[in-house]
Amino acid sequence: MIASACLIAFGAILVSAVLALFRLVRGPDVLDRVLALDTLVINIIALIVVIGLWFRTSMYFEAALLFAMVGFLTTVAFCKYLLRGNVIE
């Protein structure tokens, strides 16, 4: 039962990641690309969580948490760079 749910979730997240990748490549503005990159990071975190459920181990959840923290910091750095032109003041 959990295998079929993981496969359906994996497929849905994969479709969402492809759409975010399309927006990342074709985005008309830099801000659209940053938002698409942030969405792609969230999709990758969701894929890591689904893989953790599939293999029934908590190691993947810790990896997803670390990836979420790094993704948040990169999004903040991109936005700060776009607003001010530098990251470190």
Describe this structure as you would to a colleague.
3% of the residues are buried. The protein has three helices and no strands. It has 89 residues and is mainly α. It has one domain: Helix Hairpins, CATH 1.10.287. Helices cover 87% and strands 0% of the residues. Helix 1 runs antiparallel to helix 2 and helix 2 runs antiparallel to helix 3 (59-84). The N and C termini lie far apart (52 Å). The mean pLDDT is 92.
Question: Which characteristics define this entry?
Answer:
single chain, 89 residues, mainly alpha, Helix Hairpins
Structural class: mainly alpha
What gyration radius follows from the Cα positions, in whole Å?
15 Å
- Domain count: the total is 1
- What best-fitting shape do the alpha-carbon axes yield? flat
Q: Do you know the CATH architecture?
A: Orthogonal Bundle
Described by strand count, sense and barrel closure, the largest sheet is: none
Provide a quick synopsis of the model.
The protein has 89 residues and is an all-alpha fold. It has helices at residues 2-26, 30-55, 59-84. The chain is flat.
Describe the protein's topology.
Layout lengths: L1 H25 L3 H26 L3 H26 L5
